[in-house]
Amino acid sequence: MTVGTTGTSRRMTTIRALVLSCSLKKSPAPSSSELLGTQVLDALRTEASASGAGIEVSGEVLRVVDHPVAFGVSTDEGGGDGWPTIRAKLLEADVLVLATPIWMGQPASVCKMVLERLDAELSETDDAGRTTTLGKVAVVAVVGNEDGAHHTTAEVLQGLNDVGFSIAANASTYWVGEAMQGVDYNDHEHTPDATAGTTTVAARNALHLIGLLHQHGYPGQS
């Protein structure tokens, strides 16, 4: 988050966002979860511009399976672990968008691995006892061809909140196809209106919460 100074007031000028796509497919294979995560990033940019507050959103989309991320619960598992590179980007971000497909009614295994790696942040604190994730906002994006979006969203949001991320109202967006059908989200020529609207609200509320946290951060441990 870049901060500009006007007199004695401080204002945000740039919000950084990181989208972690938890697709099981490596690039360049099409990914519906990555598409929805990208749409959240686009919505963040659009809503920031529409706010008229002079704030820009910068960000990137990263597909986790394209990196040699090891299983574990530390910040660096060694042996060429790809997580430290992703973690560095995460620490620079104000917003984390975690995008996952549904498999067997559950978050993808890649998403669960990301949550396990984030568990290490509970031990990474500043002098006031605040975790590295405190003050960061999370949004969840879920896609699948079966029911389970609410269950998957609940699991992921709870995990992110457990490790210190703040959750705005309506902090998720999702799409699920008709049961037992083979249509993927990225097969749609146009984004379904319901999903597009939900994505916009999630982005708008996330930006609002970031502003509040910037002005009034969390206290340190007593």
How are the SSEs ordered, and which strands pair?
Blueprint: E1 2-6, E2 9-21, H1 32-50, E3 56-63, H2 83-92, E4 95-103, E5 106-107, H3 109-118, E6 137-144, H4 149-162, E7 166-176, H5 193-215
Parallel strand pairs: 2-3, 2-4, 4-6, 6-7
Antiparallel strand pairs: 1-2, 4-5
Helix pairs in contact: 1-5
Oligomer: single chain
Under CATH, the topology can be stated as Rossmann fold
Number of helices: 5
SSE string, helix = H, strand = E? EEHEHEEHEHEH
Q: How is the main sheet built?
A: 7 strands, mixed
Quickly count the domains: 1
CATH architecture name: 3-Layer(aba) Sandwich
Give the radius of gyration.
17 Å
Helical percentage: 25-40%
The CATH class designation is: Alpha Beta
- Sum up the overall morphology in one term: globular
How many β-strand stretches?
Answer: 7
- By CATH, the superfamily comes out as Flavodoxin domain
Organism: Nocardioides scoriae
GO molecular function: oxidoreductase activity
InterPro entries: Flavoprotein-like_sf, FMN_Rdtase-like_dom
Protein name: Multimeric flavodoxin WrbA
Question: Could you describe the 3D structure shown?
Answer:
It comes from Nocardioides scoriae. This is Multimeric flavodoxin WrbA. This protein is α/β, with parallel strands linked by helices. The chain has one domain: Rossmann fold, CATH 3.40.50.360. The protein is 34% helix and 25% strand. The chain contains 5 helices and 7 strands. It has helices at 32-50, 83-92, 109-118, 149-162, 193-215; strands at 2-6, 9-21, 56-63, 95-103, 106-107, 137-144, 166-176. Strands 1, 2, 3, 4, 5, 6 and 7 form a 7-stranded mixed sheet that branches. A hairpin with a 2-residue loop joins strand 4 and strand 5 (106-107). Helix 1 (32-50) crosses helix 5 (193-215). The longest helix is centred in the C-terminal third of the chain and has 23 residues, at 193-215. It is globular and about 55 Å long. It starts with a strand and ends in a 7-residue tail after the last helix. 39% of the residues are buried.
